[in-house]
Amino acid sequence: MRRILIANRGEISVRISRTLRELGLESVAVYTAEDRLALHARSADRAIELRSPLGYLDGEHLIEVARAAGCDALHPGYGFLSENSEFAAACGTKGLCFIGPPASAIAAMGSKQRARARMEASGVPLIPGGDARTLFEASATALRVGYPVLVKATDGGGGKGMRLVRSEAELGSALERTRSEAKSAFGSDAVYIEKAIENARHVEIQVLGDQHGKLVSLFERDCSIQRRHQKVIEETPCPILRPETLAKMAEVAVRGAAAIGYFSAGTFEFLLAPDGSFYFLEMNTRLQVEHPITELVTGLDLVKEMLLIADGKPLSFEEATRRGAAIEVRLYAEDPGNGFLPAPGKISLLRTASGPGVREDSGIFEGAQVSSNYDPLLSKLSVWGEDRSQALSRMRRALGEYAIGGIRTNLGLLARVVAHPDFVAGDYDIGFLTKNLAELLTEPKIDSDTRLLLCAAIAAAARIVDDSKSVARQASGATPTEPSAWLRAQRSSLKW
Q1: Residue 465's pLDDT is what?
Q2: pTM listed for this prediction
Q3: Which end of the chain is more exposed for a tag (fewer CB within 10 A), N or C?
Q4: Phi and psi based region of residue 148 (left: phi greater than 0; alpha: psi -120 to 50; beta: remaining)
Q5: Rounded to the nearest 5°, which phi and psi values hold at 190?
């Protein structure tokens, strides 16, 4: 391979471009008209505009663009067409190497019901559940497994197409609404029912395999901090997972991947019950959003490994080892105080975090326009520490450094979550945000003395800016200007 088309946008496209550049491979980005100035379009060696009205979802057009650009391969990133088996197969038919698993494996795990059947046959523990093709069938399944239950889209993902039902009276409306959402989001209204395991944690196992039959586990990630079934914060190791349970989960994940002839990067997701039992949820046949924390603790580049595997090479390591702890938070353009609704707009200020143990995977810049047409994920901030305590300290410090203006984000919420006593203690489950949301949305109170000091610091900074502008104007021969009205007001209020 020498030239690769990245069939995606945003931070994952930027991240893939970086690895390609390190390997001396050419990167070709794609963009829609509204993404013309996007960071990912400027991070690649070449960028091509997509002319199809379907944009990043038009697989046929993406393949045409890749071939016209002389690409040897295509990396799908995540989202969009990354788990579309027909797209993966079409790439191969057209002479493009699909950097991911075989189309047959994607198809095997694409339907949650088919995936459950395949995993059950392989001895993977499943959450009790069953069919829900009609209300009568759904009712029978729910009564058999016991309320509460989850109504889930068969072809769903990303936290969409899922509803909690606590009683028979709620079942009919939940079925109707889930079917409608599933049809809109995934093109199919098929749903099924699963027992809701309460007070559980969401723990996943990263697997990686080459085309020579070697499959390994790259340990776990705890993804329990979620809102509406969408991950917000992830960490590794899981704070409460016992070594023997991890060994069993890893063995189950590798066995499940082997059963479908899997290679490349993939993730097995499980629910971990309070009693230590665990149950298969689904397999994501692609790179995960939260892959940076696995890279931080293992020292591996998962995108590089995917490229080597797709090129027919064996895994670059004999045995994976893990060192330290890592945490990732997802920065979204959304309003937590308004039901986490997306909050598009123009980024007027951006100050990112850096320093020892801090990594940012971002697709934004100061002045960027955040669209309402795509997922509101802006960037991912990850930290590494020798242990969880150091990782937590670094994350709190990094979130304190980070500043973004012009749009609403969940930055403040993230800072309050990682400082919450229960999170610090590792005592949380998938219901953490729901249970603590009112507290987490409350802005911390600032006493009058602290407020005065903050105002003084802001005013001093503004004075420095005004003074430097005045010096620059005088040096250029221009007429000096008065300090800004805002600064004059600050000076007056502080009796300067």
Answers
A1: 55
A2: 0.85
A3: C
A4: beta
A5: -70, 135
In whole angstroms, give the CA distance from residue 210 to residue 234: 26
Q: What's the confidence (pLDDT) of residue 440?
A: 97
Which residue, 236, 285, 250, 289, is CA-closest to 265?
285
Where do the structural domains in the chain lie, given as residue ranges? 3-99, 128-195, 201-440, 448-493
The pair of three-digit structure tokens given for residue 42, joined into one six-digit string: 């400027």
| pLDDT above 90 as % of the chain | 81
What stretches of 333-400 adopt beta strand conformation (E)?
Answer: 334-335, 341-342, 345-346, 349-351, 358-362, 369-370, 377-385
Question: Residue type at 390?
Answer: Q
Closest by Cα among 10, 1, 4 to 69: 4
- Are 208 and 265 a contacting pair, CB within 8 Å? yes
pLDDT confidence band for 494 (50 / 70 / 90): very low
Q: Which helix (H) or strand (E) segment is 81 a member of?
A: none
Q: How confident is the model at residue 475 (pLDDT cuts 50, 70, 90)?
A: low
Read off the pLDDT of residues 204-230 as tens digits, 9 standing for 90 and up: 999 999 999 999 999 999 999 999 889
Beta bridge partners of 271: 202, 279
Q: CB within 8 A of 483, min separation 6: which ones?
A: 463, 466, 491
Q: Which CATH class is domain 3-99?
A: alpha beta
Work out the burial of residue 403: count CB atoms within 10 Å of its CB; fewer than 13 is exposed, 13-18 middle, 19 or more buried: exposed
Residues 6 or more apart whose CB falls under 8 angstroms from that of 361 comprise 11, 12, 14, 15, 292, 379, 380, 382
Distance from C-alpha of 149 to C-alpha of 341, rounded to nearest angstrom: 26
**Per-residue pLDDT tens digits for 343-400:** 999 999 999 999 999 999 999 999 999 999 999 999 999 999 999 999 999 999 999 9
Among 9, 15, 163, 286, the active-site one is 286
322 is catalytic: no
- Third-level CATH fold of 128-195: Dna Ligase; domain 1 (3.30.1490)
Beta bridge partners of 268: 205, 283
Residue 5 per-residue DSSP state: E
Q: What is the mean pLDDT of the chain?
A: 92
Based on DSSP, count helices (H) and strands (E) in the chain, helices before strands. 17, 23
Answer yes or no: are the C-beta atoms of 35 and 50 closer than 8 Å. Answer: no
Q: Find out whether 291 and 245 touch, Cβ atoms under 8 Å.
A: no
Q: Is the pLDDT of residue 416 over 60?
A: yes
String of DSSP letters for 11-61? HHHHHHHHHHHHTT-EEEEEE-GGGTT-HHHHHSSEEEE--STTGGG-HHH
Cβ neighbour number for residue 122 with a 10 Å cutoff: 15
Query: Domain 201-440 adopts which CATH fold?
Result: D-amino Acid Aminotransferase; Chain A, domain 1 (3.30.470)
